[in-house]
Amino acid sequence: MQKIKSLMTRQGLKSPQESMADLSPVENFRIPSKEELRELREQPIDPQAEQEIIDSIEEVYFSNDAFDMVQHELEKLPPELNLQELEEYRDKLKRQQAAVSKKVADLILEKQPAYVKELERVTALQTNLQLAAVICTNARRQLGVAKEGFTGASLGLLANQRRRHLLTGLLKSLRTIKTLQRTDVRLSEMLEEEDYPGAIQLCLECQKAASTFKHYSCISELNSKLQDTLEQIEEQLDVALSKTCKHFDVAHYTKVQLAYTLLGKTQTAMDQLHMHFTQAIHNTVFQVVLGYVELCAGNADTKFQKMQYKDLCTHITLDSYIPCLTDLCKALWEVMLSYHRTMQWHEEHDNMETSPGPDDAAAAKSGDSVVDRSYVKKKLEHGLTRIWQDVQLKVKAYILGTDMSNFKYDDFIVVLDVISRLMQVGEEFCGSKSEVLQESIKWQSVNYFKHYHRARLEELRMFLENETWELCPVKSNFNIAQLHEFKFMGQCRSPSVSPSRQAASSTGLAQEELSLFQLYLLEGNPFEMHIEHKEEETEDVLASNGYESDELEKCVYQDYDNDSDSDVPEELKQDYVDEQTGDAPLKSVSRETIRSKKKSDYNLNKANAPILTNTTLNVIRLVGKYMQMMNILKPIAFDVIHCVSQLFDYYLYAVYTFFGRNDMPVPSPSLPAHGGREVGTARVVGPACLYESSSLGLISSRLRTTLNRIQESLIEVEAAGENAGVHGAVEERKEKVPSPHLSQLVVLTNSGTLYGLAQRVVATESLVFLAEQFESLQSHLDTMMPAAKKPFLQQFYSQTVSTASELRKPIYWIVAARAIDYEQMLLLMAGVKWDIREIMSQHNVYVDVLLKEFEQFNKRLADVSRHVRIPLPVSNVLWEHCIRLANRTLVEGYANVKKCSNEGRALMQLDFQQFLMKLEKLTDLRPIPDKEFVETYIKAYYLTENDMEQFIKNHREYSMKQLANLVNVCLGSHINKKARQKLLAAIDDIDRPKR
Q1: DSSP of 415-469, one letter per residue?
Q2: Residues paired with residue 380 on neighbouring β-strands, in sequence order
Q3: 197: cis peptide before it, omega within 30°?
Q4: Residue 531 and residue 831: Cα distance in Å, rounded?
Q5: What residue spans define the domains of the chain?
Q6: Using one digit for the tens of pLDDT, what is the confidence trace for 750-794?
């Protein structure tokens, strides 16, 4: 800084402070002379070069003002001085000094105009301040003159004005006193008109006026009288407030709330309102139930008026239960709707009050109003839960007051529907899940459902024992969704929404989005709607005659118009009636329909028409009813699904018991039967080696386990005499059902009908159809099932439903075992000579006899198919069983041979090939079952000793007798006695573990 000052001094310039000290306020700033400017401009003008020179200056020169540059330069001199170097260094410093001087001069010239301008502004400010001082002096002088001239005169005017004001106030007071004397009459008129706000406002004004003029003796008693009148108004106001609990009126409630606001008792009014709502709920339900009890009791002397509500509910009769429940819910709805509208009124009123901003004058009053509104809002929100809890407790007492186990199904569904709607009201009312109602209705539902399910199982047993296993004619496109019991599934509604609510909401998309309180805000009642059963009238699942084409129907009628229907059972001549519901569809099964169905050709029948019986249809309907109940009340979903599984279990067990076990006597004493009564085995006819169920794989281990489980858990076994009185056994039997017995009208021993094949097909395929319907319901049941119980449902489907089709094997195997005379074939094979010495070109007679048996079987199968459609899987199973049994019979016949030559073995192969060739023309089943079983046994005759030993170990499917015979027949040809003993010992080792 010191260097800059010295430079400025050298250039003839002064600092701003020095300039200010030298200059007067009006003196102009000195402008540099032309010589000075010229000297500065003569310096190098290249900015870049000038900047480089400045940049080359050492940083130490810019450090501070105390820096001694002379000392610095002297210290930099080398020990030995060189004149030329010193001159060069001096010139460099001069150039640096010149560049800095020029830069400083440029900066001073650049800022000079601003300096001059600021100096002019300071001068002008000084002038203005002097003028302001003069103005203030003049003003003070003039104020003094005004004070002396006007104050004395004004005091006289003010005194006169004060006297006038006092006289005007006195006149106003006298008029007010006159009005107060006439107020009493007007208050009485306003109370009669129910103008509570006006009466209170008038009374408060009178009180205020009376307190103002209490120093007047003429109105000394008026204040106490007005207080009594105000208390009377409050009593009437409380009565008016209680009226809003049942029938809310906007105008009425507005007047009541305005009146309480005028009294300053908004919070007290809200407390009173909740007390009135609680009292209204109690009085309402008591009066409704009391009315029904007294109506049903007639002229009984019982004093129901003095009973508690809980005890009163126990006197409701079954006939009046649903009407009383409906009226109870209607009355409670009115109370809750009034509360809802009360809250709505307060919300709208609060919005109206808060929309315009309060001015400063009403700020204090607005603050109090905000506090009141906040209290009212919290009180109303808290009251929602409290009121709904009171409603739940009242309805719970009513629900638990009656034993509903003997209700009809439709009546109980109505009860569930009403309670479901009430729970929906509660959810919309306060967001409650209605745990109290859920628990009470769950308890009643479980109690009812156990009783109902027990009756349905007994009913199902009766149906099964009277079932003749005839086809129930249904349309080819029959689906369970067409039954009215399953209509609810198409509605895709939530379990919490009642059927009637769903019906109401299905009228339009706009209505579906509205809550019950929005739908019935002004009129109507959600509990006035009744469940319609129009679906029953429009349900059309039965085929009128087995044909869907009118031309086919007419053709059949013309062909069989003259036939007699005397052989048609009487029950088939009647209209089809659902035994479960007693409902008759619009279309009935006429005599011509039955006749045409019995006489019609198999090719005219609908190839894809479902095979089911009347009992199957009833079970499906029953499942639909169970699912309805489960859909309405989710908490009992597991109990319902468990009972649904028992329906299927019992039906499956009945079909197996009727048709899967054969107890017919063995026709030949020389051929003992093999089997027994154990579930999962079949008692058979014929040689044990031929018809052993395990060797044919008729009953899988999964099916056997399922049948045993059903028998242990569901089927009631007759207890012994000493155990009959045990309490535990009695309790256990309550959950079980006796095993059904086949109807005597069903004959399974007639060979002309292929041992009841038609009935077997209807029974088995109806079970398969039922299983298919259960499969289609799995996803819906899975959504209903609680997460913890879902493994039960999965196990039911994987281990029970999926095994239905496995019953085909044991059931149709019994037919196959008797349809062909395998005993005759064995006898014919025993008469054939097999130790021949020349190759034969003609097969044996037993092959033709066996083929004729198969042709006869095929014809009888076609005869049965004219009455009952035989599906391809059934036909394949029958043919497979018959062919397997025939092939095993062939092996058994070959195993009975005592002597056989190589030519005899060739004859066996010729016979078998002839049998196969003719058989392939009768059936489309490919490959032929057990073909290798016969061929391998015939070829085993040619095996050597070592190969024969390996054959015995590998082929366990042959019996010990068949293997032993194979060894004995080969003796002498290519097996010696020693080898024979060895092979027989090997056979005995294989047989030993089975003993």
Answers
A1: HHHHHHHHHHHHHHHH----HHHHHHHHHHHHHHHHHHHHHHHHHHHHHHHH---
A2: none
A3: no
A4: 77
A5: 47-193, 265-461, 820-938, 943-994
A6: 888 888 899 999 999 999 999 999 999 999 899 888 888 889 999
